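Q: A reviewer asked whether we had any structural model of the full assembly, not just the individual parts. We don't, so I'm hoping you can provide one. Inputs are below.
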Amino acid sequence: MSEKPRLTYINGRGRMESIRWLLAAAGVEFEEIFLQTREQLLKLGQDGSLMFHQLPLVEIDGMKLVQCRAILSYIAGKYNLYGKDLKERALIDMYVEGISDLMQLILMFPFSPPEAKEKNIATISEKATERYFPVFEKVLKQHGQDFLVGNRFSWADVQLMEAILAVEEKVPSVLSGFPQLQAFKTKMSNMPTIKKFLQPGSPRKPPPDENYVATVMKIFKLD
Amino acid sequence: MSGKPVLHYVSVRGRMEPVKWLLAAAGVEFEERILKTKDDLQKLRTDGCLLFQQVPMVEIDGMKMVQTRAILNYIAGKYNLYGKDLKERALIDMYVGGTDDLMGFLLSFPFLSAEDKVKQCAFVVQKATSRYFPAYEKVLKDHGQDFLVGNRLSWADIHLLEAILMLEEKKSDALSGFPLLQAFKKRISSIPTIKKFLAPGSKRKPISDDKYVETVRRVLRMYYDVKPN
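A: Here is a predicted structure for the entire assembly that you could use as a starting point for your response.
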């Protein structure tokens, strides 16, 4: 019997959002458990569910997987979003890892002090427009295909779409100057599974707010 | 024509060392190009060799690969050190993720002040002995096999050995209380390719000393104001 994957995290984007995106893009329904107290996290650790006492945790196919990359790689592999061979996988990995460095800035942003926020937005904007987006603009321009790798939909496309939308929330005009990425964003938005994920009522979480920050600080005691 | 992989990096262990471990363990010879000035880095950038303007970069099989994790995934896959199926790969990824986090705490170590080095050392040892080593000890205990995954050598074993040795450089008895990891360490160290890498004269980098710190700061233009965890 195949059960739905079960995601354990807090009720917010954080490090689980990329996993929600990928499952949703693959058309996979999943369940979610939202922790509300630190005690719940500690208990999971004591139960042996968390190999390194950390979240995210995804229970899938009889495994209790932790470590985002491990989880994402497994999902990508299982649902044929990881290229057709080692070399395509290498490209997907490079692109995903690069985007993930950009996403790290976004992940950390809510926790920066108020006086640093403006500077941090400027950094996100600069990195996006000078280091990361130009790479993908060029990739799309050079092969003229709809998808980043191998002329078919992959994890790299999902991750790039997530990053574009996340940066746009901070820097609304960030794609001006990137016509290929604008077209890419439109195409991705119209893919049925992604379209569904972008609609209200989907598992997609809203942008982090003060409540999210407070919950993270309380439960994870960021150490 | 298939040549040896070429590794482009600076003269500290940093982010390239796990790549060298993995290639060495797989019995693959490689070449190194050490960046010594910021012009060396700039040239790679202007030549379009660095996808995200960063090193590590490894030239392998006609690709200029960047992003350490992507490079390691490729090498592991190519040399059959990545398990036999998706589930074994997931376990390997999970285990490598842990050792990567642990060794990550030591990345900026050479660039810390003497006082902060003491703090960071204590921090890393505490993490190793309370969070990471117990996790791997349990894996070995639960299945009783010689290797972490699938009863054969994989990337996860090589990465864990690297982490163990790095921790022992900070605290020589870091493995006390972990008998299975002690046996694991002996076993994996004596695999011929790994034994060769651990012997003097190999491409393994010694612990970064102060001589290199300023050069690396200049070349990468980072690590200027590093704080401990």
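A: Points you may want to mention in the reply: Residues 84-189 of chain A form a domain with the Glutathione S-transferase Yfyf (Class Pi); Chain A, domain 2 fold (CATH 1.20.1050.10). Chain A touches chain B at residues 51-53, 61, 63, 65-71, 73-74, 77-78, 86-87, 89-90, 93-94, 96-98, 101, 131-132, 135 (CB under 8 Å).
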